[in-house]
Write a structure and sequence with these properties.
Blueprint lengths: L5 H10 L7 H21 L1 H5 L4 H11 L5 H11 L3 H7 L2 H31 L8 H11 L2 H21 L3 H9 L1 H6 L3 H14 L5 H21 L7
Length: 234
């Protein structure tokens, strides 16, 4: 079985999302994603502002939690599947596994946030500016606690994989050698998605520790939301 086959399933999940065919939902989803990013920047300001952490913080905010160019990335992945056997010969196996894990997380983030966006459209006028209270109530109504915890578990696994597989000089050298081919065949967005992960990890002593520090705080917020805390995001 192809090591890239799992991407087919992930793309199918992505294209089944309702916002692709609903402009109002798409706008509300963008609002939710922006709120998420701003909230994470506030919550993790001390962690994200450490010099060596800044690139990974940006990778989290712009890649794993709803990047603006994910539609372009999805189209390139879909096209890659036509050349799957050639791609597997060019891209190191560990880079494929780790890149796939990143794609899975990015899609899961959109899935979860779309459900929030749908709930918001049901409860409020479409153009109502988002507040922490609106988001808190939406999380409670949707009961996303377990889904959000699963998201954090996958993120912890990605952090461990980055340390285990992607710090190899040989892996990164092999990956860099693919750049010319990737750009020649218009797989630039996909290449940059993976390259950003490499670059973000480089200044860190441990990607796994960076992720653990992040997910520990996120778990506290999830617990506060579902315990009825009126100000869980502060």
């Amino acid at each position: 079985m192809s090591k890239l086959a799992v991407l087919d399933d992930l793309l199918e999940q992505y294209y089944q999302l309702q916002y692709h065919h609903n402009a109002e939902l798409f706008q509300r989803l963008q609002d939710v994603q922006m709120w998420q990013k701003q909230r994470m920047q506030r919550t993790h300001h001390q962690h994200f502002s450490v010099k060596n952490n800044q690139l990974m913080a940006q990778y989290f905010l712009n890649r794993l939690y709803g990047g603006p160019d994910f539609d372009a990335l999805a189209k390139q992945i879909a096209r890659l599947m036509k050349y799957v056997h050639k791609a597997e010969k060019l891209i190191p196996e560990n880079a494929i596994k780790t890149g796939t894990a990143g794609v899975e997380l990015a899609i899961l983030a959109v899935q979860l946030d779309e459900r929030v966006a749908l709930q918001l459209l049901e409860d409020y006028a479409p153009n109502t500016p988002l507040t922490d209270e609106m988001m808190r109530l939406s999380y409670l109504k949707l009961d996303q606690g377990q889904s959000r915890l699963h998201q954090l578990e996958l993120l912890d696994q990605l952090g461990a994989s980055l340390d285990k597989y992607m710090r190899s000089f040989m892996v990164y050298t092999a990956f860099k050698m693919c750049k010319g081919v990737a750009y020649k065949h218009h797989f630039d967005v996909m290449y940059e998605f993976m390259q950003d992960g490499f670059l973000a990890m480089k200044p860190l002593k441990s990607a796994e520790q960076f992720v653990k520090d992040f997910t520990a705080i996120e778990r506290q917020i999830i617990a506060k939301v579902h315990a009825g805390d009126l100000h869980p995001f502060q």
